TrEMBL record:
Species assigned in the record: Microbacterium testaceum (Aureobacterium testaceum)
Superkingdom in the source lineage: Bacteria
Residues covered by region (Disordered): 22-67
Record protein name field: Methionine aminopeptidase
Length: 67
């Protein structure tokens, strides 16, 4: 297993792929195993956000019928 300091990260501020801990954690998304995966991080984050929103819309925990 490769340690996180050797993996790839997507820098949310610059939009660049970095290897290792080049930037503060708050500015990084990852880790990713390859630079290509890190470069695709914005699309992946959008896809996951949409999936979570869809799941939340289907969730009826807060509705009165679920009680």
């Amino acid at each position: 297993m490769v340690s996180d300091d050797k993996k790839y990260w997507y820098n949310l501020e610059t939009g660049k792929v970095e290897q290792g801990f080049e930037s503060p954690a708050i500015d990084r998304a990852g880790p990713f195993d390859t630079a290509e995966e890190a470069a695709a991080a914005p699309e992946l984050m959008k896809k996951r956000a949409k999936q979570w929103a869809d799941e939340e819309a289907q969730d009826d925990w807060g509705s009165s019928s679920a009680r």
